[in-house]
Amino acid sequence: MASLMQTVQSLCEQFKVPGLHFEAGQSGLTKAVVATPVASGELYLQGAHVTSWQPAGHAPVLWMSRSSLFQPGKPIRGGVPICFPWFGPHASDPSAPAHGFARTALWEVTEARTTADGVISLSLQTRIDSFSVRFTVEFGPVLQMTLTTEPGPSSSTGLRFEDALHTYLSVSDVRNVSITGLEQVRYIDKVDGAAEKPATGAAIEFTGETDRVYFTTDSECHLHDPGRNRTIAISKSGSQSTVVWNPWIAKSARMPDFGDHEWPEMVCIETANVGVHAVELAPQSIHATTVVIQVK
Prior knowledge:
Structural class: mainly beta
Number of domains: 1
Number of helices: 2
Order of helices and strands: HEEEEEEEEEEEEEEEEEEEEHEEE
Distance between the termini: 42 Å
Largest sheet: 9 strands, antiparallel
CATH class: Mainly Beta
Low-confidence stretches: none
Radius of gyration: 19 Å
Helix content: under 10%
Number of strands: 23
CATH architecture: Distorted Sandwich
Strand order of the largest sheet: 6-7-8-9-23-19-18-13-16
């Protein structure tokens, strides 16, 4: 614990930003805590994982499972996991961790500052395989997150990766919400054997397990939640896939870090580049995937 507290202390000494401090979170994992007049939030250095964001005057926007494992080397359930450098199971290695290494890696804080309008901006970085990866989060009236990827210094050829900002959004009851913005977009239905399906022309509503990958889309989505009298807008850039997910009853019961009765409380709208939209990264190039979340 002494070495952990020294790490927390050194972060507090290095980044003296009003409205920001570092502390030991659950299971002693180091986290950044934001508390300003415009927003509050939290980010765990393991996984560069945003676990909370609440703009002033609104209820919390992100959802966290009460059964989540906060343990070294284990993914956190809820908030905004970073999926990288692949999405879902590894294409050729079934023993590899689902969604890649980013969400369990220990990231380094490289910058923390306050913008002119009182927003706290945090930047973190890590190395994963042949990639240098940076994650920047702005906690303010809107939540802006950017995952920036470039080849590592030893890479001399093009690289391919998938990424996703796997955002869990809190809702009053998933059975009573809807998502607009994807009515004209084709999708892969992973609940139906990864069948490719045409655009429905209708808003997304939830009546059972839902796991869809919408492709060739940079559309802004709106999550309409009449139970909370709010709409959450999700806009993005550098992303051509949008994933919509709710595990429903049976799958929730099979996940040890997801409460059996928590599924009505959340829905994922994920900003991604997966499958046919995996990124081909040329030498000396940079790719940035950005999502902006706002309560309206």
